[in-house]
Amino acid sequence: xxxxxxxxxxxxxxxxxxxxxxxxxxxxxxxxxxxxxxxxxxxxxxxxxxxxxxxxxxxxxxxxxxxxxxxxxxxxxxxxxxxxxxxxxxxxxxxxxxxxxxxxxxxxxxxxxxxxxxxxxxxxxxxxxxxxxxxxxxxxxxxxxxxxxxxxxxxxxxxxxxxxxxxxxxxxxxxxxxxxxxxxxxxxxxxxxxxxxxxxxxxxxxxxxxxxxxxxxxxxxxxxxxxxxxxxxxxxxxxxxxxxxxxxxxxxxxxxxxxxxxxxxxxxxxxxxxxxxxxxxxxxxxxxxxxxxxxxxxxxxxxxxxxxxxxxxxxxxxxxxxxxxxxxxxxxxxxxxxxxxxxxxxxxxxxxxxxxxxxxxxxxxxxxxxxxxxxxxxxxxxxxxxxxxxxxxxxxxxxxxxxxxxxxxxxxxxxxxxxxxxxxxxxxxxxxxxxxxxxxxxxxxxxxxxxxxxxxxxxxxxxxxxxxxxxxxxxxxxxxxxxxxxxxxxxxxxxxxxxxxxxxxxxxxxxxxxxxxxxxxxxxxxxx
Length: 528
Ligand code: G4P
Known about the structure:
By secondary structure, the chain is an alpha+beta fold.
């Protein structure tokens, strides 16, 4: 196990967060290109199309041109092993996104230089902040007319309450974009439209080096010197500790489509981004360099191939060395599972995983026994914590078109709930299932999946319900009183945990006031 600490130290598991259109797909592709994982730009999209062609249930995805599924891409660069977890950018899928963010150690936030912070940037950033995920910012599309760099930086500071430090400084923009000054390494990196991978780099000894004058026009040099002086005066210097604690973000400027800034970003990730972190379990912290292997499931993807009723459990290794064929304890059920064919995800393909270390993501095929939040160990009854479940913001009743098939519907809903695709509640009174989702578009996707995967036409119908809250109390009498008094508004989720189904904000408020000993939870940790 001599190389365990080295293997852990060289891993970087991260996600890219961005508002749609900021350039996440383009940057992902370029990162893979730089990492040698793909040979041609455009391959990421091709992969998406191939996958869509294979699986019917992604019809909605195809029709709407949005990415419903998150995937994992692994590649190597400069001696580091990167795992890039894709987060669905569409606002309707934030719950999946939140959970993906529990499996990364850092994030790259992509911002469109002309637009700055957008709605979805804010939402995704909030998810990162919940866990103090360290963030490197990439301001993209500098080859277009964009906002002033200082203006963009202050917007990040103000809107996100996050300190920023420029890692590079742009020279010009749009048609006059000349490149960036690398503030961390004192280099001038010249921009070339449609750029190649190896940029023209001029090593500089500080901002006063006459080499700058030799490579740029006088007004460009003057502006650069003034800008940098001002930026250095206004902004904090880079501080690794503050970055890794999630309080300070180094900012790169670039143009993903022109390959510009991508190499610097990757080097930044290699040099600054944290290796796999210790992971919190209910009883103790688990260090990534511990010899015994541990892992947790953060995402389930069902029916990737409709011909096989398989599900893939996306599992993050937290410690030890995984080896193909090893047996692990599935802590929730107490059963051993044999990992003889888990997969790792390469840029364009999946491959059987031979080995893995903390930070790596395995895809474990299974028939539904693995659920989001589950822990796997070599025998210790650990339970990792911190994998959240969010109270749904939209609630609807669902019925099978054919009432005789209600039982089948129950089974389908149970599986979808286990997978984390929806919350499914059974009210104490009545026979309807209430389905809750975070984004309204998910109802359509669910109906489509229930039809294609289970052959069941269903209807979703609006209800008079407003929101759901998980309920708990340290006082069993108070809990019982609450349940008795509000029976008409109480149900259970697929784990058998009680939920309060409120008709409106007032109803919830009233229940909270009337039952001060009961807690109404918006976020629940799963599979405890
Ligand atoms: P997303 O995944 O965040 O939604 O964004 P995506 O990468 O698909 O990029 C959105 C659009 O922005 C694409 O153009 C892409 O080519 C463009 N883009 C990405 N990076 C840059 C950049 O550095 N400079 C400029 N000028 N454009 C950039 P599109 O016209 O929507 O798609 P396509 O026809 O180019 O594929």
